[in-house]
Amino acid sequence: MMKNIMMPQPHEILNVLKETQAEYTFRVACDAATQHGQFFMLSIPKIGEAPISVSGKGQGYVEFTIRKVGRLTEGVFGLKAGDTLFMRGPYGNAFPVEQFENKNLVFITGGTGLAPVRTLINHFYDHPEICKSVYLISGFKDVDAVLFTDDIRRFQERFHMTATLDNTAAPGFETGLVTEHIKKIPFASFDDFNVVVVGPPIMMHFSAMELIANGVDESKIWVSFERKMSCAVGKCGHCKINETYVCLEGPVFNYVKAKELLD
What we know:
Blueprint: E1 9-18, E2 23-29, E3 39-44, E4 48-53, E5 56-58, E6 61-67, H1 71-76, E7 84-91, H2 97-100, E8 104-110, H3 114-126, E9 133-140, H4 149-158, E10 160-165, E11 174-175, E12 193-198, H5 201-213, E13 221-224, E14 240-241, E15 244-245, H6 246-249, E16 252-254, H7 255-258
Parallel strand pairs: 8-9, 8-12, 9-10, 10-11, 12-13
Antiparallel strand pairs: 1-2, 1-7, 2-6, 3-4, 3-7, 5-6, 13-16, 14-15
């Protein structure tokens, strides 16, 4: 009997961690093999369904960091450990990890954009021998919007990390948008490198412009975005931009392609 790829399956919520007033991380029982950058479609019967990137994974579980922005996410915020969340996936492509190995890596994230690259950053945290260096710029609106505070402390100890707040000051944080800190990265000293940029579309656009202004070739920039994905299997057309189905060809894109897709 053929498996229905559109049929969500029930999964138990193992743990719920409050990150901020608006964002929670849900750890869900799941044995599916996922790659860095992929997403699942999460749903609650009679309420709705939404694409959410994997923000953490381990033996027998995946994690999703969810922001309260609509009917589905409002419903998800009412769930607790032991409750059931319906899921299908994983979907989409992944970051080209093998291309990143033995090079210098730069991550630039805005707000919840840290979530889709968190497993990738942790991969290089756990295997420091497979890359030359890691530079990380993570921007948040203010101190109350900071995600993954324990991770940020770990990353600051091992990586060249700048955590920054848009226009306020707090201990351990710089001030200013992420674009203002890009010029501090010593691109000229790298023999080979890749840059991953994830955040709101406008943040990714201006970060890419600033990277290019600092001598970074477009082909070295990678982005991820969950644009209007609805079915996740290329059938509904909601996420289609020109001839590109974001759910099938993305959510990870090289900037050479992504610059045509970013609104």
